[in-house]
Amino acid sequence: MNVLVVSLLGAALAFGGGSAAQSQERCTFLQPIGGNGSSPIVSKSVGAAKVTPIGMAFGRTNWNTDFIVNQPYSSFKFFFTANSSDANAKYPVSGFMKFSDGSNLQVINELMNPPIGTGRMFGPFPAIPGKQATQMNFKVGASNDPGAQGFSYRISVQGCQ
Questions:
Q1: Distance between CA 156 and CA 81 in Å, rounded?
Q2: Of 109, 95, 92, nearest to 148 (Cα)?
Q3: CA 70, CA 30: separation in Å to the nearest integer?
Q4: Are 95 and 143 in contact (CB under 8 A)?
């Protein structure tokens, strides 16, 4: 190696070039769709499905929360924290990547019974080559577990590069 190359390499390392801090991914919280922009963290409670007098579910529930993907990212992380708990209830948690072509990919499908204050990160899930992510979706709750109603939680999603 010539002296100039060694000197430049030494200077780059001394000023942070090639340091561990620069090689770490940088993550940004995604904004929830319909939020007021003040916080990327959404707090919710599992509500009951709206049911007709003959027992058919209809209308919108509060189970789904979408987060907008406003630029390309190499991976995504989903964060979940329980604010309340019922020792007998299981809380279905699902996560989806939604794409510009209308397709989606389920990346989380778990039945959880987390203690109060317990958090969990799901991922990182890599971006799908050839697909443009437009939203990340978190779904907590399902009509087949009435014990999950009233469960409160916080969720957020990060895009990373």
A1: 9
A2: 92
A3: 8
A4: no
pTM of the model: 0.74
For residues 115 and 85, the answer to whether their CB atoms sit within 8 Å is yes
For residues 31 and 17, what is the distance between their CA atoms, to the nearest angstrom? 31
- Distance separating alpha carbons of residues 70 and 137, to the nearest angstrom: 14
Say which amino acid occupies 133. A
Work out whether the CA dihedral 88, 148, 83, 125 comes out positive or negative: positive
Q: Residue 143: name the closest of 42, 46, 65 by CA.
A: 46
Mean pLDDT of each 10-residue bin along the chain, 161 residues long? 35 38 80 85 74 50 86 96 74 93 96 82 96 95 64 91 95
Question: Which of 147, 133, 138, 42 lies closest to 93, judged by CA?
Answer: 138
Amino acid at 79: F
Distance CA 119, CA 82 (A): 6
- Could you tell me if 121 and 79 are in contact, meaning their C-beta atoms sit under 8 angstroms apart? yes
